[in-house]
Amino acid sequence: MRRVCTTSLALLLAAGVASADPFKEITVGVPVASITDAEAWYLTLFGPEIEVLKPVPGVVEFKVAPDTWYQIFETENPQPSGAVVRFLVEDMAASQAKWADAGIDTGAAIQIPDVVTYSEFTDPDGNALGLYDLP
Questions:
Q1: Where exactly are the structural domains of the chain?
Q2: Would you write out the chain's pLDDT as a tens digit for each of its 135 residues?
Q3: CATH top-level class for 23-133?
Q4: What residue stretch is flagged as signal peptide (predicted)?
Q5: Fewer CB within 10 Å: N-end or C-end of the chain?
């Protein structure tokens, strides 16, 4: 019986069925009151070159990293989830300056020496966001 189980596992691995990663892609969805206003705000945050999908009316998705989508969806009474979505940036000071010039306040940069520099802020609907920069 052990030989059958070992052979079956080897066949699954060889066929690419078994994977160390449980998921192939991630989509994080957050509620917004106005899809039009939120789309404009997020395009300012993410930049006009970002890949955007609009799969159905009231939903906009932004490809923020390989295999990672940030989705906004319109709802009558949006309630922030309490979760924080954080984005890795290469240079905290430069990133914050760029967004400040675009009218987005990304919060104060907090530095933990040799560990991380981060900031926290919200979108206009109160969804918690953050930036972080690693040494």
A1: 23-133
A2: 444 333 343 444 444 555 567 899 999 999 999 999 999 999 999 999 999 999 999 999 999 999 999 999 999 988 888 899 999 999 999 999 999 999 999 999 999 999 999 999 999 999 999 999 999
A3: alpha beta
A4: 1-20
A5: N
